[in-house]
Write a structure and sequence with these properties.
Elements (H helix, E strand, L loop, with lengths): L1 E6 L5 H16 L8 E6 L10 H13 L4 E4 L5 H12 L6 E3 L1 H12 L3 H15 L22 H40 L4 E6 L5 H9 L16 E7 L4 E7 L9 H6 L1 H8 L3 E7 L5 H14 L7 E6 L9 H7 L5 E3 L8 H12 L2
Parallel strand pairs: 1-2, 1-3, 3-4, 5-7, 5-8, 8-9, 9-10
Antiparallel strand pairs: 6-7
Helix pairs in contact: 4-5, 5-6, 6-9
């Protein structure tokens, strides 16, 4: 895989490297994918090819001398931009694929999706992103047959693909709607039974699943990989002070520049977080970019219309950050309750439960 990154001219080298590193980690989480090289351009995007025409020719020249199966652009391409780049690169290698950031994330999602719901949500997100091209429409458009006043083979093919796309969109949307309605009923039933819920959210790889396992005594997969958790998981914790059980949910991790379409496609999974009585925003306290990632998650929580009074900031992995300046963190973050803990050593868990308790007493 060849990475192509378009960086804002105002960004410093360290910020550019940070974005590239995150994309590199995304690729690494695919397991069998290997980044062979990175090509960077600083400047504005171009309507026709996203990267500049000169840089596009540079990428094409690289492809003539190196074996690459996928070119991944670290941005979100329009259908026209992807079409133009693909057409240019196909002159060199007709099997090459052009991905953008959404394609990359969806490919990773596919690796970690196990439930029918998650797979359907990925299909919906992919169809929304690619449009009819997902069913074979694309280069066909450049090979349309027929003349003026005639109905060419390419035109007929295009119409078939559009109809198939509409049918599939409706089928997948209907299935997700059915699953969403079912999840809503489950949530409503829990509320009617008096069951309260705690939802765990956070930037991907912050340790959400480790905390979920600790609270619920489960053994769900814990990996040092982005998007290791995709399917929503639900467990229970008994709180003696309340003399009752509380439901705990763990769900998909967030990431910088996560397209709104992906959040919308996963709205069914995220219902657990939206309807929760308490939302634990888990943060990797050992991450030097924690403040930037806190802001990313806060923006998504705001999009989901999660009330601020439900949120508790949980700074995880303090065992990996012995010199953590807690006062500075509290000063620089939003005025939510702050808890510092380690899901590995269990230090701080009692403080977390004591912080959650008042929010569950009604």
């Amino acid at each position: 895989m060849l990475l192509v990154s378009l960086a804002n001219a105002k960004l410093g080298q360290s910020e550019i490297e940070k974005d590239i590193t995150e994309t590199w980690n995304l690729v690494a989480s695919m397991g069998n994918a290997v980044v062979v090289d990175i090509i960077v351009q600083k400047g504005p995007s171009y309507p026709a090819t996203y990267i500049g025409p000169g840089k596009a020719r540079e990428v094409a020249e690289y492809l003539t001398h190196h074996s690459v199966d996928v070119v991944t652009v670290n941005g979100i391409l329009t259908p026209n931009q992807k079409f133009n780049l693909t057409k240019m690169f196909w002159d060199i290698n007709p099997k090459i694929e052009v991905w953008d950031r959404v394609d990359l994330i969806l490919s990773i999602f596919s690796l970690h999706a196990h439930t029918t719901e998650a797979k359907l949500q990925i299909s919906l997100a992919r169809m929304r992103h690619m449009g009819p091209r997902i069913f074979g429409m694309g280069m066909v458009l450049s090979r349309q047959a027929g003349g003026i006043g005639t109905r060419g083979i390419g035109e007929t093919n295009t119409e078939l693909m559009k109809r198939h796309y509409k049918r599939e969109m409706k089928r997948v949307t209907d299935e997700i709607t059915h699953l969403t309605d079912s999840r809503r009923r489950q949530i409503e039933n829990r509320k009617n039974m008096g069951l309260q819920t705690i939802s765990i959210v956070g930037y991907t790889n912050a340790g959400k699943t480790s905390l979920f396992n600790l609270l619920t005594n489960k053994k769900n997969l814990v990996e040092n990989a982005l998007f290791a958790t995709l399917d929503s998981a639900v467990g229970k914790i008994y709180i003696p002070q309340l003399e009752r059980t509380v439901v705990v949910s763990d769900t998909i991790g967030f990431i910088k520049d996560l397209p709104p379409g992906l959040i919308e496609a996963f709205s069914s999974t995220l219902l657990e977080s939206v309807s929760a009585d308490v939302v634990l925003h888990v943060i990797d306290a050992s991450d030097k970019d924690m403040f930037e990632k806190i802001n990313v998650v806060e923006e998504i929580l705001d999009q989901l219309k999660i009330l601020p009074e439900k949120v508790v900031l949980v700074f995880n992995k303090i065992d990996a950050a012995p010199a953590l300046d807690r006062e500075k963190i509290i000063e620089r973050t939003v005025p939510y309750p702050h808890v510092f803990l380690s899901a590995i050593t269990h230090k701080g868990v009692d403080t977390l439960l004591a912080t959650i308790l008042p929010r569950l007493i009604k």
